[in-house]
Amino acid sequence: MSSGSSSEKEKQPRKRKRSTEVEKLEKEMAAMAKKLRLLQQNDIMATDADESDATQSSEENQSPNKVKQASVKAANVNEEEVSSCLGELRENKTSNELDLIDDVALRVSEYLRLGLPKEQKKEILDLIPRKHKDFNLVAPKINAEILHSMKEEAIKRDNFFAHYQDIAAANLALSSSVLSMVLNDQNEPLERSNILKALSDAVKLNAELYRCLNIARKIYITPAFEKKVKAVLDKAESTELLFGDKVTDLISGVKTAETLKKDLLGTKMTGSLNWRGSSNNTVGSPKNQTKKSYFARKDQQAPFTPRQNSSKKQNYRRNYTQSHPLQKKT
């Protein structure tokens, strides 16, 4: 028993020694891990500093006069407060575009370019009610007393204006009827088909009125130009500009066509265009010289001398009658 107890006593200090050694190793390992972490952090910071220096140097080389802007990560920024203090951005401002479906947009663009067919326009205008107890949405006619004293051009111009006024009156009748339907929906339920019909007719008539007024503006401007230039400008398709974006090309095309036509026909103005004489007369011809002496000033004209009966002429007549007996008087 004594031998067994002594062996156990010898084993206990050895276990304690091993545990202390393990603790020392663990502490050393932890210290080394801390050192590695510090080294890694220092390396990361050094690389970030190098990258920032490189970007700054590149920016300075590209634009030395440019002000450096600090990059700040915005988190939960109050946009209303920023806009009230600094104002709204002009470049990033959303444009007020018309929101239309493709089918409606295609038809509106077609109506603006080609207009409504005459039969369809007449049918729409005839079916729209115009008269109300308080007003009448019809273009008024000219009084007969005024019409007799008007010129033909003024009458034609007024007919165009009356047509435009008639289209505007029809649009007003349609829009007011739809508005009345919507406001009175509690008493009378809305009918989708009636509203769609009225709105579609209003869109067609508005597009037609826009196109007619566009043409009328051109008609009042183009008479100041030449006939061929006027014809080209009247057919020019309008964009944001009345005569389109390529009006200089259109006018220059007409001019070049005229010059080419003259070159091909070879029409050259030759000779004099004086109305007193023909174009074939030259300046040095005796005919023109006589005209010059006739139309000369009074101080340059020769003095007037009366005609005298010369004896030579009488002798010539006597000799002529003697040599030709048939010419003698009986």
UniProtKB/TrEMBL annotation:
<feature type="region of interest" description="Disordered">
    <location>
        <begin position="275"/>
        <end position="330"/>
    </location>
</feature>
<feature type="region of interest" description="Disordered">
    <location>
        <begin position="1"/>
        <end position="75"/>
    </location>
</feature>
<feature type="compositionally biased region" description="Polar residues">
    <location>
        <begin position="302"/>
        <end position="330"/>
    </location>
</feature>
<feature type="compositionally biased region" description="Basic and acidic residues">
    <location>
        <begin position="19"/>
        <end position="29"/>
    </location>
</feature>
<feature type="compositionally biased region" description="Polar residues">
    <location>
        <begin position="275"/>
        <end position="292"/>
    </location>
</feature>
<protein>
    <submittedName>
        <fullName>Uncharacterized protein</fullName>
    </submittedName>
</protein>
<feature type="compositionally biased region" description="Polar residues">
    <location>
        <begin position="54"/>
        <end position="68"/>
    </location>
</feature>
